[in-house]
Design brief:
By secondary structure, the chain is mostly beta strands. The chain contains 6 helices and 27 strands. The chain has 2 domains: 6-278, no CATH class; 284-438, no CATH class. The protein has helices spanning 6-9, 88-95, 278-283, 287-299, 346-351, 401-407, and strands at 42-48, 66-70, 77-87, 99-104, 108-117, 120-126, 135-136, 162-167, 174-178, 186-189, 195-197, 203-205, 211-214, 230-232, 238-239, 265-267, 272-276, 330-332, 338-339, 358-360, 367-372, 374-375, 390-392, 397-399, 412-414, 418-420, 436-438. A hairpin with a 4-residue loop joins strand 16 and strand 17 (272-276). It is elongated, with a radius of gyration of 25 Å. The protein starts with 5 loop residues before the first helix and ends in a 6-residue tail after the last strand.
């Protein structure tokens, strides 16, 4: 049915009439998903890169920096059942009466008809605010750490980017597919997009800018290594990357699967998502643990070698206008020496013709950018429980050594066809030889 959300169409119960008889065929009175009595089994969580887990005023409704996958009140997944090749008028009639994936040709359309699968739940992701989309994603602006709609008009994220299907029965296998069903219950693959027939004569294809997938090598821990990026098709097959992001020719078919495992990354050409399982998050640091680590550093009363004052990391609740910037920890990112904010050496740096953003460390005389430090507060991005001793460059997000080492090795899609390592907390591309620096505090 056009315009209705899938969770509403397949909700578990209907409103009762005055005589306690269930009303029939009255979809407008179906209860909302959160009103259904069925237990909600968690499947895992998707985290958007670049927001550092701290948007209390914006993590509302579908606009969130994370999305918890949970069991639907009733199954709403779909499964392909039939394939047709029809002319345009016949195709339009079929599209209006069923879930379908339409591969448009010059004069005919190949249609894959789908039916509701009682064994799976479907959750959809995209830029559209229509009810069919469960998780609305916006373009990540590196360094902003805030959701912004100012780039929506020229976004490269698809309105209906991808869909996730989860087995309702244990072990609750999670799979991802390119493309999501729109208000007409249809996935449209234009004739200018990559599309083909497989050996069984069924059709498959890719979306405009694609849905990329990367599984790390090894389980999520300090010993894992990044894997290779692949592209997932509309029906879940895996291919090597196209020559360019929106090329009309698909890559080569490769062995692999479209499962979402603990640590799998998804790129939707504008936003990167990290999937963490329920079991994986149970092993991750908690926000409370990260706050304690921050407080432990403050308890050591580190000193600024220049201002000879105690420096400390402020709590998240502190009013920024009340903070003395001179007491905020800053670091020279080429050497790692931590200071409070100071103006020492600015004129000296100018005399030595250094870059306008460079300063000279008063301890070791190493030149380089002088930046404020801030904590990485999204536990899902941490790979261990190690001490918070390192910071990404050039953003200054403090994290553990193993976490810094892992993300400095991960090539994330950047721009149209580039790949660069980036800080997971703010999405800024990393700079310098390693992309991170060990912090050197001066304590009492």
């Amino acid at each position: 049915m056009p315009g209705r959300s899938f969770c509403a169409l397949f909700c578990c119960a209907k409103q009762q009439t005055g005589n306690d008889e269930p009303e029939k065929d009255n979809l407008d009175k179906l209860p909302r998903e959160e009103e259904c009595a069925a237990p909600s089994i968690p499947y895992g969580t998707l985290y958007a890169f670049g927001y550092n887990g701290q948007l209390p005023l914006q993590n509302r409704g579908k606009y969130k920096t994370y999305f918890k996958l949970k069991q639907k009140p009733m199954a709403n997944g779909v499964i392909p059942v039939e394939q047709f090749t029809l002319n345009s008028s016949e195709a339009n009639a079929m599209e209006a009466s069923s879930f379908s994936c339409v591969f448009a040709g010059a004069t005919t359309k190949s249609i894959t008809k789908c039916e509701v699968d009682k064994n799976t739940d479907m959750l959809q992701i995209g830029r559209s605010a229509e009810p069919q989309v469960d998780f609305i994603v916006m373009d990540t602006v590196p360094g902003e750490e805030t959701i912004s709609e100012k780039f929506a008009s020229r976004s490269t994220i698809s309105r209906f980017a991808c869909r996730v299907l989860v087995d309702r029965n244990p072990p609750h296998t999670v799979r991802i597919f390119a493309g999501a069903f729109d208000s007409k219950n249809c996935i449209q693959i234009g004739e200018n997009l990559p599309q083909w027939k497989k050996e069984d004569e069924s059709c498959d294809g890719l979306t405009t800018n694609g849905v990329l997938l990367m599984h790390q090598n090894g389980e999520w821990n300090a010993a894992m290594k990044p894997g290779a990026w692949r592209e997932v098709s509309v029906f879940g097959d895996i291919y090597s990357l196209r020559k360019t992001r929106s090329a009309k020719e698909r890559g080569q078919f490769v062995s692999g699967n479209n499962f979402l495992l603990d640590g799998t990354m998804i790129d939707l050409c504008g936003v990167v998502l990290l999937f963490r399982t329920v079991e994986g998050l149970e092993k991750a640091p908690t926000v409370e643990e990260l706050i304690k680590r921050r407080d432990d550093i403050n308890a050591e009363r580190p000193q600024c070698p220049v201002g000879l004052m105690t420096i400390r990391f402020p709590s998240n609740q502190v009013n920024q206008k009340q903070i003395d910037m001179h007491s905020i920890p800053h670091v020279y990112i080429n050497c790692g020496h931590v200071h409070g904010y100071h103006s020492w050496g600015e004129s000296h740096a100018q005399n030595e013709n250094l870059d306008e953003n460079d300063r000279i460390c008063p301890i070791c005389r190493e030149s380089g950018p002088f930046i404020p430090l801030k904590f990485g507060m999204e536990p899902a991005f941490y790979v261990d429980h190690g001490p918070l001793t390192h910071a990404f460059c050039p953003c200054g997000h403090v994290t553990s050594e193993a976490t810094a080492q892992y993300w400095s090795q991960v090539p994330l899609p950047y721009g149209k066809d580039e790949f660069r390592a980036a800080c997971p907390f703010c999405a800024k591309p990393l700079e310098g030889e390693d992309g991170f620096v060990r912090l050197i505090f001066q304590t009492e």
